[in-house]
């Protein structure tokens, strides 16, 4: 109401103090006394007086004028926000047009240095829908490096750490909690990789510590391509990430035991210990492209929960993770390689809109799973605190219905002397201040016998640990009175 009475908010310009007359400045306040809207007989002043219950605005000029001046500031901010929204809309539309034109030009260019059969296959798939997802664009950049083609490269690859170990990601994307666009990203990425011949056994992923290898290959960067040895026919490796000391490499052919005496590790290497394969062959990649590209059908949540119930119990009874945390992992609510909410668009606004539009669907799924947003965050905190590679292997083992592997993986995850169910863990998390301390790590630490000489560098940590010890004591007394015994890991004495 008051905003509607203001006179030309966009035309109001500040007046320099030197141009003001002393006679004009009769009242002291945060408002501009020469503004048309701040004159006692203006419509804005009368409306302000009416809202404040004052008959004559001149009698309470300072109060009414201050209210009008505040309304003027609000109106100006509204105008700026409206103008910013228009600019953002135009920018998004322009970027979308540029992406579509770039995708169209990329799909019409043949790959240099490829075999005739590869060129024929490329011609066949030119009629398919244009791939415009972030994952597909990054996959094209990788394909250019593999085929030694010039081209632009992103400063950071957010989706390419999937390459070479795609099985756990394909399983995760099909979970009910995963964002629907994740399936589209992976389907388009797999299509580009399959077209470029980047799949197992031709290419596999491994991890290495770069400090020693930097002496041989120099500073690390995204897309760095190098030979594994000095031999002319030595296989190549391409760097997929640069943000961690342990670099992910896409290696041509079989994964070696070491590169220049630096041990090679990674999900694919550790999977052999449990008899699991995390890589995707051409046939497997084609199968997952079909599964991920199919129209979304409503998942029977109760039937799904029943199918994974035995695996959830097997894991939660052998490690620190609660049943809810394991459920969130298997339901697609978290992946250690991409986190809880993977980046779907490089533009922040587009990314926010994508997740905003999925709120209703995800809320309905959480309701069926009986998981609140707070429960989801608590589960993600737990999953974040354990070995990500073991969690990836756990997804593969459950998908393969390999209970022996599930149990073996769970036994390698951290465990505590005292174990908690979800309600007890939530109760403990309600104590303390997470700003000062990782509460999940603190709870797990005090659930085991503490060291005789525990070194705490800050008094806040001492307060946190003491508080959790007291909370655990109270919890244990309650559990003894109700159950008579503490829940312990399977096989514990």
Shape: globular
Mean pLDDT: 79
Q: What is the number of helices?
A: 19
Taking strands numbered 1, 2, ... along the chain, how are they ordered across the largest sheet? 1-4-3-2
Output the structural class.
mainly alpha
Which strand-content bin applies to the residues? 5-15%
**What is the β-strand count?**
6
User: Which regions have little confidence, pLDDT < 50, spanning 5+ residues?
Assistant: 10-33, 106-129, 479-493
Largest sheet: 4 strands, antiparallel
Order of helices and strands: HHHHHHEHEEEEEHHHHHHHHHHHH
Distance between the termini: 73 Å
Gyration radius over CA? 30 Å
Helix content range: 40-55%
Summed up, what is this model?
With 493 residues, the chain is mainly alpha-helical. The protein has 19 helices and 6 strands.
């Amino acid at each position: 109401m008051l905003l509607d009475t203001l006179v030309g908010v966009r035309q109001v310009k500040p007046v320099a103090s030197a141009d003001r007359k002393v006679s004009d400045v009769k009242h002291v306040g945060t408002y501009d006394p020469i503004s048309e809207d701040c004159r006692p007989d203006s419509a804005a002043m009368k409306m302000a007086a009416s809202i404040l219950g004052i008959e004559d605005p001149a009698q309470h000029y300072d109060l009414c004028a201050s209210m009008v001046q505040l309304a003027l500031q609000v109106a100006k901010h509204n105008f700026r926000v409206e103008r910013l929204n228009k600019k953002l809309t135009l920018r998004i539309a322009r970027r979308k047009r540029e992406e579509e034109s770039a995708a169209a030009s990329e799909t019409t260019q043949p790959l240099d240095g490829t075999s005739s059969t590869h060129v024929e296959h490329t011609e066949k798939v030119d009629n398919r829908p244009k791939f415009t997802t972030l994952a597909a664009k990054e996959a094209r950049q990788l394909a250019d490096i593999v085929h030694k083609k010039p081209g632009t490269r992103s400063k950071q690859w957010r989706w390419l750490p999937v390459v070479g170990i795609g099985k756990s990601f394909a399983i995760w994307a099909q979970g009910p909690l995963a964002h629907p666009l994740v399936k589209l990203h992976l389907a388009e990425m797999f299509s580009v990789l399959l077209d470029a011949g980047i799949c197992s056994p031709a290419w596999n992923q491994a991890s290495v510590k770069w400090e020693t290898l930097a002496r041989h290959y120099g500073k690390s960067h995204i897309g760095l391509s190098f030979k594994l040895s000095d031999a002319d026919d030595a296989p190549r490796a391409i760097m997929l990430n640069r943000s961690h000391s342990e670099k992910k490499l896409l290696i041509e052919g079989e994964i070696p035991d070491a590169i220049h005496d630096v041990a090679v590790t990674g999900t694919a290497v550790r999977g052999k210990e449990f008899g699991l394969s995390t890589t995707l062959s051409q046939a497997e990649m084609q199968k997952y492209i079909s599964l991920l590209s199919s129209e979304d059908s409503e998942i029977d949540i109760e039937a799904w929960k029943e199918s994974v119930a035995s695996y959830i119990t097997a894991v939660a009874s052998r490690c620190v993770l609660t049943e809810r945390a394991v459920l969130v992992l298997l339901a697609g609510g978290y992946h250690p390689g991409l986190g809880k909410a993977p980046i779907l668009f490089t533009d922040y606004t587009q990314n926010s809109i994508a997740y905003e539009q999925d709120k209703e669907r995800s809320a309905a799924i959480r309701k069926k799973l009986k998981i609140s947003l707070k429960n989801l965050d608590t589960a993600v905190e737990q999953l974040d605190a354990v070995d990500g590679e073991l969690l990836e292997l756990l997804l593969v083992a459950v998908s393969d219905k390999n209970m022996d592997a599930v149990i073996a993986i769970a036994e390698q995850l951290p465990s505590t002397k005292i174990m908690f169910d979800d309600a007890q863990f939530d109760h403990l998390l309600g104590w303390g201040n997470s700003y000062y301390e990782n509460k999940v790590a603190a709870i797990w630490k005090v659930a085991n016998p503490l060291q005789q000489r525990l070194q705490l560098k800050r008094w806040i940590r001492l307060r946190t640990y003491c508080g959790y010890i007291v909370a655990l004591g109270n919890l244990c007394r309650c559990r003894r009175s109700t159950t008579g015994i503490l829940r312990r890991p399977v096989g514990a004495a």
